[in-house]
From TrEMBL:
GO terms of biological process kind: lysine biosynthetic process via diaminopimelate
Sections of the chain in a coiled coil: none
Record-linked NCBIfam families: DapC_direct (TIGR03540), PRK09276.1 (NF006756)
Catalytic EC class: transferase
UniProt protein name: Aminotransferase
Cofactors (names): pyridoxal 5'-phosphate
Keyword check for Transferase: yes
Keywords: Aminotransferase, Transferase
Species assigned in the record: Methanolobus chelungpuianus
Domain Aminotransferase class I/classII large: start-end pairs: 30-379
Amino acid sequence: MYSDRINRLPPYLFAAIDEAKAKIIAKGVDVIDLGVGDPDQPTPAHIVESMCQAVRDPSTHQYPSYTGLLEFRKAAAQWCRQTRGLDIDPVSETLTLIGSKEGVAHVPLAFINPGDVVLCPDPGYPVYKIGTQFAGGKEHIMPLLEENDFLPDLEAIPKDTLAKAKLMFINYPNNPTSATADLKFFEEVVQFAREHNIVVVHDNAYSEMVYDGYQSPSFLSVDGAMDIGIELYSMSKTYNMTGWRLGFAVGNRDLIAGFGKVKSNIDSGAFDAIQRAGITALTSSQQCVADMNNIYTERRNVLLKGLRELGLDVKPPKATFYVWARVPEGYDSMGFSKLLLENAGIVATPGVGFGQYGEGYIRFALTKTVPRMNEAVERMSKLKL
Ligand SMILES: Cc1ncc(COP(=O)(O)O)c(C=O)c1O
């Protein structure tokens, strides 16, 4: 009944956890869910208000432009200039996305022919591999290892693979490891991509979720990056807008044009009212972002203290709202997440769900309030490991 591409989808590794979670909830356990990376706080009021006004304007009710409202693209380009000093043309170098997941899933269709190779980080956001497969490409896994600070070892990619490689996904600040990358790494990527003729897609969904004074650099700010790459930005985590579905791509104009061709044949653009709310988010005071980051910092500190008391090896993340921890001796990632769920009522994501190199780790999302984080830590302290 299903196409080969559906039949070839990898098994859904979270199914066992979902099932166990449903059983625990049915028993009446007060579950603390630190599994999904979905902000718990509402979208800031000024953004919601802007949407309410926009949706009352009938001119927003018609088909949007394929490439996105020019005013939204101008706001995105201006935001890129203000936050990262990028010089982006809103007309030819910017594209509105219906969330960055849509971008990740569709971008291979523009550049990948059957049999071409896409370099995908592992552990990583699963859509890199799925988008590759849906486009008929073959993924080549770039392991993100702790001893390499969770950066891929570009030199380790075999020559015959490189000959077929057309596209590379990178993602810093990183989901799930919460690792960050510096400009030196981005420079290496640009040089490598130019040498081997590879398009680079930098998924920057966590660009603004930063702590302790850290600022995440832009891949596109490196010399030569605009020749070979694009960056995907997301409104989801930055402005608590996961449900709204809005993001944007910026970068090389030919790449943006190719990507735009795919989108104009598949979707009909993001709802104009949502883009108007997006303009408000990007052009208003960014205090709401700083406030959220302070909230996540406090939660992070509570969880880190608790995990360390438990003997788990964790480094404080400088970015993202994830804590990536090694599971205790004697457990694999699935086994430890089952233990957390069944004996402490805590949902966390087993690292293996992000790929084979995620085995041995578990991911906690900082999506519950400080009192709930304290409660989670308290429950974990009673576990017998
Ligand atoms: C690394 C990464 N990229 C992209 C996305 C998709 O974000 P959205 O489609 O909400 O913009 C996510 C969401 O969790 C993510 O973790």
